[in-house]
Amino acid sequence: MLRWFIASTRNWRNMSWGQGTSNNDIGWGQGSVNDDDIGWGEIYADSWSGDTNIIGLASDAAAYFTAASIVDATEQAAVIQLVKDLKGTGSTTNNTDVWSDLLTLYPISPTSLAAAAFNLIDPSSYEITWYNSPTHGDDGIESDGSTSYGDSGYQADNSVDNDVGLTVAFEYPPGGGTPLGARDTTGDDFYLMMRGASNTRRFYAGENTEFVTGGSDLSTAVFTGIRRAADDKELYKNGASVGTNTNTDSNGLPALNLFVLASNQDGSPAQYMPSGINTNFLAAHTALSDNQIDDLYDAITTYNANVVSGGR
């Protein structure tokens, strides 16, 4: 296994890579690094094939591993591939840069409920605070249907925002439920949420009556909702468009934190996800392009297939 091939100097700027036909099996440690000394830690992955920005990639993944105390090699490899795919250097359909347009990203680590709280984009911000211990397992997280949920700490702009979106991978909640969202009903009637209702999924971004709906089946799927303009909302299922709303919506977004496994209704949890209904990936982002949405779906699918043995 290739770890590092270092020229006859200890200076960082003169570090070089060994010759080879590929850069598979390059290990990365988490020790301290400065211009003179390199600290070595545990290996974070055994396969970095074809990456052209390995130092930046390792830094993003390592920060998340450290914050969330993730030590399982299978999960580490899945996260590294996820970062590559989101940055457009992996194996998605279009290889677009999705990473730069993500605001929060929760891969819902199978390690623990505490690990599932961390935001991969920046583990030092928007860590989810869990209330009443949602159920956690390899497949994701579940509410008890009445008391357990999370507060992401992330709050969307409360002005009219035409560059916003949410992505959630979740099972259909019989009777309705909100895996990610907030709603201000005190007069402004500002909504930003993804939810299941009436055998479909709905995306809200603004006025509560101007949602976009689609995905008329009960299967687990990845749903992305986008608001690009006051008269342009669109809902995607597994990377493909399933619904639009072209009515003009002049309402803005709620000045409330997005809740997980429930909606934040004026500061209190409501519309809980039912007990036994799984959610395993959450993100807030800008109004992604069609190609970015397709690639985000690819990245999530690959991650979920590999984050635990046998997939989830």
Low-confidence stretches: 1-55
Report strand order across the widest sheet.
1-17-6-11-12-13
Please state the CA-atom Rg, rounded to the nearest Å: 20 Å
Shape: globular
Question: Biggest β-sheet, characterized?
Answer: 6 strands, antiparallel
Note the total helix count. 3
What is the percentage of strand-forming residues?
A: 25-35%
- The end-to-end span amounts to 29 Å
H/E order of the elements? HHEEEEEEEEEEEEEEEEEH
Total count of strands = 17
CATH class of the largest domain: Mainly Beta
Average pLDDT, all residues? 83
What would CATH call the architecture of the largest domain?
Sandwich
Overall structural class, as computed from helix and strand content, comes to: alpha+beta
> How many distinct folded domains?
2
CATH topology name of the largest domain:
Jelly Rolls
Helix content class: 10-25%
Give a concise summary.
The chain has 312 residues and is an alpha+beta fold.
What does this structure look like?
The protein is of the alpha+beta class and 312 residues long. It folds into 2 domains: 12-86, no CATH class; 99-306, Sandwich (Jelly Rolls). It contains 3 helices and 17 strands. The strands form 4 sheets. It has a 6-stranded antiparallel sheet with strand order 1-17-6-11-12-13, with helices on one face. The protein has a 6-stranded mixed sheet with strand order 10-9-8-7-15-16, with no helix packed on it. Strand 3 (135-137) and strand 4 (140-142) form a beta hairpin. Helix 2 runs antiparallel to helix 3 (290-306). It is globular. The two termini are 29 Å apart. The relative contact order is 0.16. Residues 1-55 have low confidence and may be disordered.
